[in-house]
Every structure is written in structure tokens, then in C-alpha cells.
Amino acid sequence: MIGRFRASPVLMTACLALAASTMAQRSNDFQFNILTNQRLNSVMRCHEVESLFEYDLPEVLKVRVPGTPEHEVVKNYIVSRLNQLNCSRWNITQHSFEQDTPYADIPRTRFTNIIATLDPEVDKRLVLAAHYDSKRTPRGFLGATDSALPVALLLDMALTLDEKLQNRGLSEYSLQLIFFDGEEAFQRWTATDSLYGSRQLARDMEDTSLLSVGDKTALQAMEAFVLLDLIGAQNPTFHNMFESTTNLYGRLARIEQRLHDSNHLESHSQPYFVSQQLRSLQIEDDHKPFLERGNSTHTHPTRFLN
């Protein structure tokens, strides 16, 4: 897309608008609370893109390999930002565990997933997720799109929307943000050397009381799971990859079109969210352990997958 947001990237505002809406997704029977023009404009006015690049991105855009001091700094920054949210409505959880890795210098590594849940007593959750670790390379790897920017987007979105979310009162649906640790492989990507954080979290959300609500496990409470990864380069395109989430994907596409029609986008010649559905790509990413358990929404620019 040759598109530029006047106040914020289009994907950022699509997530803002989606999170600000009341929605449900587990079958293909979605229900949305469409934002009025007044509320949409209010969401647009409450954020300036400069804050994203001035505050959150520089603090995350570091070499952040699990088990290193730099990784600990980034983890603590994410937690500190989330702790600025209204503590009476948000629950901040650090899901820590240790696991063997094939890397000789750090054979036993401690990982920490970070989960922020708005109104944890609500049993229907929209989940937005990204991983915050970076890949181990000899020269060091910043991972701007993989995935410092998605992490910064989620942090900025949460702080931007917090006041508006507080004002809405208790709703039937809630918001959960997950920052995965250990997505990257230490040596070579395999089923056991990758996705450390998401594999462990999906297991614990299914098999234990971690973040459970009522008679639902945390996994059962996920009405929609949206993973942001490899986002930040120019001209990305996002395809619908799961038939079960066609309506949710269509909602994102309509939000983008509405932003264009209301003159909130500039130079908008080609959409991010395209109509063509891709079903043959098997993507290895943090959504996979949840997909295997029935959750199937994924936001991943297609050109990185080719």
C-alpha cells in the first residue's frame, strides 16, 4: 500500500477501531458494534504517531535475546508501560518458565510471557499479540519489524485507548494483550527450537487455571486471536488465511476502507487488506500453538512469506 496515516499507521488504527468495538468471533457468526462517525473521529484524534516513535519503539528496538541483560531491560520496560494502565480494570501477569535450549552458553533459559487483561472477569476476550524477543545472530539483530514495531504498536494502543475503555463500563467483551517471549529459534527452526513462549502459554491456558474465568479456561475465553508480526516495512498486504475468520478479516478491510472514505488516509492507492484468500501457506509463528487448539486469526504481511 502506498498509504500514509495522517496521525498513525493504518494497521494501528484498524486495531484501535477493532478494539474499541464490541465484537465476537469463534464461529463464523460475528457480531460487531459499529463505531459511529463521531466515535471513530474521537479515536483518530486521541493518538499522534510521533508518540509511538518517541516513546515506545526506541525502548524496544534493542538486541533482546532471551537470557541476556538487554532482554531483561526490554521485558521490564513492557511491564512498566502496562503498569501505567488503570490498575482497577487491568490485570498484568508475567508467565515465567525455564526450558532447555540448544544454545551451549545458555542451555537452560528463563522465558517470560507478559499478558495484560482488561476486566479479567469477562469471559469473552479479543486477543492482540506480538513477540518481544529477537533472534540470536553473531552481529546482533534488532528485529525492527520482527517484532519491535508490533510490540510498540500494542503498547501505544493500550495507553491510547485506556481512558476510553474505562469510560465504557463493563462490557460483554474484553481485550487481552499478549507479549510472547522466545519466538525465535536459538540455532535452527524446529518444532522444539522455536515458539518457546507461545507453546508453553497455550498448554498452560488449556490445562491449568492460568487466567481462567468462570468455567472457561483462558483458551476457551479467546473469541478472536490476532497476531501481529513482521509489520513495519512499506507496502504490506494482508490476506485472509482462515475461512473461519472471514467475517473478522472483512471487518478489518471495511475499517480500512471507511478510514479512506472519511479522508483519514493519504495516497491510499491499494489496500492493505486484500480480498484474495490464501489457504496453502503453512506459517510457523506464535499463532500455531493456538491454531492447533482452535484459534485461527493471524495478521502477517504476505510478501514476507514468499
TrEMBL record:
Keywords: Acyltransferase, Signal, Transferase. InterPro entries: Peptidase_M28, QC/QCL. The lineage of its organism: Eukaryota, Metazoa, Porifera, Demospongiae, Heteroscleromorpha. GO terms for molecular function: glutaminyl-peptide cyclotransferase activity; zinc ion binding. Its EC number is 2.3.2.5. Belongs to the glutaminyl-peptide cyclotransferase family. It comes from the Eukaryota. Residues 1-24 form the signal peptide. Residues 113-295 form the Peptidase M28 domain. It catalyses: N-terminal L-glutaminyl-[peptide] = N-terminal 5-oxo-L-prolyl-[peptide] + NH4(+). The keyword Electron transport does not apply. This is glutaminyl-peptide cyclotransferase. It is an enzyme of class 2 (transferase).
